[in-house]
Amino acid sequence: MPCKSIEILVGLFVSLCIAAIFFLALQVSNFSALQDNGSYTLIAHFENVGGLKSKALVSMAGVPIGRVADISFDPDNYDALVKLRIDARYNKMPSDTSASILTSGLLGDKYIGLTPGGLNEFLQEGDTIELTQSALVLERMISQFLFNSSDKDK
Amino acid sequence: MKLLQTIGQSSLKFLAKLGRSSLFLISILTGLAYTLSRPNLLIKQLYSIGVLTFWLIAISGLFVGMVLGLQGVYTLSTFGAESSLGIMVAASLVRELGPVVSALLFAGRAGSALTAEIGLMKATDQLSAMEMMAIDPLKYIIAPRFFAGFISLPLLAALFSAVGVLGGYLAGVELLSVDSGSYWSQMQSTIDFHDDIINGIIKSIIFAWLVSWIALFEGYDALPTSAGISRATTRTVVNSAFAILLFDFLLTALMYGEP
Questions:
Q1: Residue B125 three-state SS
Q2: What is the pLDDT of residues A109-124, one digit of tens each?
Q3: How confident is the model at residue A153 (pLDDT cuts 50, 70, 90)?
């Protein structure tokens, strides 16, 4: 039956290629990390985001718990308004949690690290994280260092 | 005067061809229901277009991935960033090389065969014989080939990318001892399913449409002589390559143009 063997080969071809798509989705991309358990949004104001990008990781204790959804400029306060999308599994963030922009490695990507507070009230959808620490900008640190050392010389 | 006439003539010819090919495409698309109601025709074409291109795509993908791995390690090691090899290999394969190179190979392997086949059918009056028997050759012969190409190429492009990522792993990790953990983990943290993989698949769907359309139309439009068929086959490969690269630029500008 030549016709049957052709059908089998086509079936093998299609299933191998679909397996390749699954391989790309699961092994190559962050598809599995994006597994949607639902999420809630928090807002944080930063004086300077210094190269933070949307989709950057939000982590607590070094474990990724969400992503940066959106970064925009807030014209009322003249600072950066960052929206964080946090996985709904982690819905017990104390309301005095603080957020800081950190760098992974010396020259790596910027991410947001959350440090839990001690209050017994929890952050809800749309709440604002009050305590924030903005990104360290290398040029500013260097100029501060230079000014300090030249002051000492006098 | 003569120059103006030549320019006018060739642009009119081009417009006429574009018009004919659009009519051709429309009549193929109306043949979709006919093709779907006769899956045997489609399966036969999937075999000759897709399955027979499988090994070409798989082996080229492996070697392209391995070359990317070797070159990537060579270049990245000057910055001490070999651990980013996975990102480089996967991003370049999934976004660009997978869709584009597999479409070029597909045009050379399957597109030229389609053109020659249809051209020869026309030259030996098989198409007119079918019309005589009240069978529409556009529906019976051409539409199944078009949809088989349309289905095969995106699948083959995904295969190319997947095999290429494995090839990069072989060259970078097994041969040049980049750390296996950082190869996969950096890749997974950077490659986005929607932005990279889905966009790559959209690209290859558009390339599939272009290549099948060009190949079938050139065959159908060929002069029914041996010289005409050979010229049509050449035109298929050249025009497909041109169209693929042009559309690749336009799609990339649309998808990744704004940071």
A1: coil
A2: 788 888 888 888 888 8
A3: low
Residue B139 lies in a domain: yes
What is the nearest CA distance from B183 to chain A, expressed in angstroms?
Answer: 10
Closest CA to B220 of B207, B209, B205, B235: B235
Are the Cβ atoms of A20 and B163 closer than 8 angstroms?
yes
Given A13, A28, A33, which is nearest B51 (Cβ)?
A13
Number of domains comprising chain B: 1
Residue B202 maps to a domain: yes
Sign of the Cα pseudo-torsion (B26, B29, B33, B38, in order): positive
Instruction: Flag whether B150 is in a domain.
Output: yes
Quick: pLDDT tens for B40-58: 888 888 888 888 899 999 9
Nearest to B197 among A14, A16, A24 (CB): A24
- Encode pLDDT of B88-128 as tens digits: 899 999 989 999 999 999 999 999 999 999 999 989 989 88
Q: Write out the residue range of the structural domain in which residue B107 sits.
A: 22-256
Residues A144, B40: Cα–Cα separation, whole Å: 75
* Residue B82 forms part of a structural domain: yes
Contact B99, B224 (CB under 8 A): no
A28–chain B nearest CA distance, Å: 5
